[in-house]
Amino acid sequence: MKSAVFERQQGQLTEALQTLSTAISKYPKYPKLYMIQGQIYEDMSDRTSARAAYAAGIKACPKEPILWILASRLEEADNRSIKSRALLEKARIAIKANDQLWAEAVGLEERAGGPAQAKTVLSRGENIILFF
Hints:
By secondary structure, this protein is an all-alpha fold. The chain is 80% helix and 0% strand. The radius of gyration is 16 Å and the shape is elongated. It starts with a helix and ends with a helix.
């Protein structure tokens, strides 16, 4: 992972992606590898590959909230807020009572310009988190 990060910092994105592919084949349950891979693809403006990287990460590590959040933010950046909401909803089902996912959902609604919807999501989150 450190090699891939160094290569990324040096602007050697292709080499970093090759290093990450090798690392993912050896350590498929390490979520940080998928995160870095997706972010590199985003830096390269290759949203399709970034989507695939995050999806593979979510499949391999479904309990990692940051992967879900990065995938959601990618969809939001691509003006696909419905898909972004759906990803966060799936994440909240897969990972019960996670503060990060609820906070991201509230933030998504605020950024989408729906303060009333943000308050609704916030109240739902408070009720669920207090329940657990």
